[in-house]
Amino acid sequence: MGDQPALPWRTTWIIGASSGLGAALAKLLDGRVGTVAVSARSVDSLTALQASTQTLAAYPLDVTDEDAVARCYRDIEKSHGPIDLVVLSAGTWEVVSPPDLDPSAFKKSMDVNFMGVVNVLAKIVPDMMRRESGQIAIVSSVAGYRGLPKAAAYGSTKAALINLAESLYPELAEKGVTLSIVNPGFVDTPMTAVNDFPMPFLMPVDAAAQRLLRGLERKNYEITFPRRFTWMLKALRLLPNAVFFWVVRTFMLRS
Fold it and tell me: Which is the catalytic residue, given 59, 73, 145, 154?
């Protein structure tokens, strides 16, 4: 990585970095910023990731534990100084299909995908606003644009994240804090590997991480990829409900 130009952050924190998009982004940042703190529940995965890199520092964390989030945040800043980029990519995918509407699937999804983000924001936002600097990226999904089959639990949390980002953005921007919402389509990760349905425009994880990094460098509010698919999903938001549900029944529901 030594021939790569330096990036504009000194200390970064990537949450959900044990695999998938988070891990791929951490590797892109390695050697190009001062410190890349990486967090996830899997201690073994983080240790292996740290061992293969130059500037990654492992901080195991369960984002559903509010006290643990506070401790982890304090430990990182004590060792490496103020964090100027936080990427929130921890997530879980629970397939939900009627008539089986298991409340535990919804609770787990909300605890990890939504409240995990809130737990981190509650710690980092006050400090960033006080310093009037910093950058935050929340990884949501195109599944948050409109309700899709099998995604009742997952999509609900992603829609909530999109709304959360829209709500926070203006006040953070006034204090010099950059907030991005990341809405990927299908990315080839362990999370999507379990899917038993077609995944249009499935994107290699390394290419997705490159797109994410480019959007972060540009400080884009919304970062989406692959564009052909994400713009198709955006178009669904413009359809009248009757047309939208016809599209879903015709092209998305399995017989």
Answer: 154
Split into its structural domains, the chain has a count of 1
pLDDT category of residue 211 using cuts at 50, 70 and 90: very high
Q: What's the pTM? A: 0.91
pLDDT score of 194? 57
Domain of 233, CATH number, reads 3.40.50.720
State how far the Cα of 197 lies from the Cα of 192, in Å rounded to an integer: 10
Asked, for residue 161, whether it belongs to a domain, the answer is yes
Q: CA quadruple 192, 193, 199, 205: dihedral positive or negative? A: positive
What is residue 92's predicted lDDT score, i.e. its pLDDT?
A: 93
Range of the domain at 79: 11-252
192 class by beta-carbon count within 10 Å (0-12 exposed, 13-18 middle, 19+ buried): middle
Active site residue 145: no
Separation CA 216–CA 210 (nearest Å): 10
